[in-house]
Write a structure and sequence with these properties.
Layout (H helix, E strand, L loop, with lengths): L7 E2 L3 H4 L11 H15 L4 H4 L2 H4 L1 H8 L5 H21 L13 H10 L10 H5 L9 H10 L2 H27 L5 H11 L2 H10 L10 H33 L5 H9 L3 H31 L12 H35 L8 H7 L1 E2 L10
Antiparallel strand pairs: 1-2
Helix pairs in contact: 2-5, 2-6, 5-6, 5-16, 7-10, 10-11, 10-12, 11-13, 13-15, 13-16, 14-15
Length: about 375
C-alpha cells in the first residue's frame, strides 16, 4: 500500500517521560554479539530476516530495558527480545500467523469470543511457548528454572503467554476481516500484543527483580502501574510505527483506530495519542507516589495484616526495596522502548536522530522494513 502524502509531527513522547533516567547495560555489546551469532547458527531465520539484525538494534533495546542484570541474564533476555521481534515481523506478513502457533485457530477464536481463553488448557506457560515456532528455541534453557519457580509465578506466566497469544489472534482476525476494532478492544489488545508481560515474567524468573506479592488495594495499585506502563509502551510504539504500518497497509494501530472512529486527520490522531500517552504516564507516576507513601506510613496497609510491630522495621525495608526495584524495572522498560524507537532503523530508516529533534515525519522517511 502506498503511504499517505501527508506529513505529520509526532507528539513529544520523549518529553513526557523525561523524568525517567535512561540507563544501559555494560554487557550490551557482548550479549548482542552472542545472541546474533546464536540466531544465525540456529538456521530458523531466512537470509532476509537476518539482514535486519544490525539496523533494528534489538540488542540495544534489551540492554536499555534491563540495565543492571549480569551478562548471563541479559543474554537470555536479548535472545527473547530477538525472537519476539521476528515473531512480530512474521505476524505482520500476510498468512504467516497460522504457521507460528501450534494451535487450532478456529477454537482459539471461539474461546476469545466467549471470553474463556485458557480455561481448559492445562499446559504450563513454557509448554505453551513450545507451540511457537520461534519462541520454543529457549524452552530447554528455562525449563529447570520454571520448575523451581513458585506456583504464583507459573500461573502469572501462563496468563501472560495466553494473553500474548490471544492478542495476536485478535489482530489476525481483524486483519482477515478488514475490521477496525473499537478503541476499547484495541487498547486492551495492544497492551499484550508485543509480549511485554511475557518478557517481564521471564526477567523475574531470571531474578532481575521480583514481582511484589501484595494484598488488597496495594496489589491493585501494582497491577494498575504495570498496565499503565504497558499502555505507554504500546501506544508510543503505535505512534512511531504509524508510517511503517501504512507501508504495510495495516490499520491495526492506535493512530488509525482514532482516525476511523473519531473522524480525525493523521495529525489530529497523533495529537490525541500524545494526550493518551501523557495521561497514562501521569497515572503511572501518581500511583507510584501513592504506593511509596503507603510504604512510608507506619500504618501501611501492606504490612498491618501480616507482621507484628517489632518485625515491621526490617520487613518494611525488605518489601519496600522489592517494590521500588519492580517500579524501577517498569520505568527502565518505558524509557528503553521510547529512546530505542529513535535509534533503530525500523521506523524511520536512518533519520531517527532528525525526527527525535524536530518530530516531523515526511513521506521520504522510509522504514528499513517495508514488507
Amino acid at each position: 500500500m502506498a503511504p499517505s502524502s501527508q506529513s505529520f509531527q509526532l507528539p513529544d513522547i520523549l518529553g513526557v517521560i523525561n523524568s525517567i533516567e535512561l540507563r544501559t547495560n555494560g554487557h550490551c555489546r557482548y550479549a548482542t554479539e552472542a545472541s546474533e551469532k546464536w540466531l544465525t547458527e540456529t538456521g530458523i531465520l531466512s537470509v532476509d530476516e537476518l539482514s535486519y539484525i544490525h539496523p533494528t538494534k534489538i540488542g540495544l533495546l534489551s540492554a536499555l530495558c534491563f540495565p543492571k542484570c549480569d551478562f548471563p541474564q541479559l543474554r537470555v533476555l536479548t535472545d527473547f527480545c530477538m525472537l519476539f521481534f521476528y515473531s512480530g515481523l512474521r505476524e505482520n506478513a500476510e498468512g504467516e500467523t497460522f504457521r507460528l502457533w501450534d494451535v487450532d485457530h478456529s477454537q482459539l477464536s471461539a474461546q476469545i469470543a466467549a471470553g474463556s481463553v485458557g480455561e481448559m488448557d492445562y499446559k504450563s506457560g513454557l509448554d505453551l511457548l513450545k507451540g511457537h515456532v520461534l519462541l520454543r528455541q529457549l524452552h530447554q534453557r528455562l525449563v529447570n528454572l520454571a520448575s523451581a519457580a513458585s506456583e504464583t509465578w507459573n500461573a502469572r506466566f501462563k496468563k501472560s503467554v495466553l494473553d500474548y497469544q490471544a492478542a495476536q489472534e485478535v489482530r489476525r482476525m481483524n486483519r482477515s476481516r478488514n475490521d477496525v476494532p473499537s478503541l476499547e478492544e484495541y487498547t486492551a489488545t495492544a497492551r499484550e500484543m508485543h509480549g511485554n508481560s511475557v518478557l517481564l515474567d521471564l526477567a523475574e524468573l531470571l531474578e532481575v527483580f521480583e514481582f511484589p506479592d501484595l494484598r488488597g488495594t496495594e496489589a491493585e495499585k501494582i497491577i494498575h502501574m504495570k498496565h499503565a506502563a504497558l499502555d505507554v509502551i504500546a501506544w508510543s510504539l503505535d505512534v512511531v510505527s504509524y508510517q511503517l504500518q501504512q507501508y504495510r497497509g495495516s490499520t491495526y494501530n492506535l493512530v488509525a483506530v482514532l482516525m476511523h472512529h473519531n473522524s480525525l486527520s493523521v495529525q489530529g490522531a497523533m495529537n490525541q495519542c500524545g494526550n493518551m500517552i501523557k495521561q497514562a504516564f501521569s497515572s503511572f507516576c501518581s500511583t507510584e507516589r501513592a504506593i511509596l507513601d503507603s510504604i512510608d506510613s507506619s500504618k501501611s496497609s501492606i504490612l498491618s495484616w501480616m507482621w507484628t510491630a517489632k518485625e515491621i522495621s526490617a520487613d518494611t525495608e525488605a518489601i519496600s526495596e522489592k517494590i521500588k526495584r519492580y517500579i524501577r524495572a517498569l520505568k527502565d522498560c518505558i524509557s528503553a522502548v521510547i529512546h530505542w524507537a529513535y535509534e533503530t532503523e525500523l521506523f524511520f530508516g536512518k533519520k531517527g536522530s532528525e525526527i527525535r529533534t524536530f518530530g516531523w515525519v515526511f513521506v521520504d522517511h522510509i522504514p528499513v522494513i517495508t514488507e
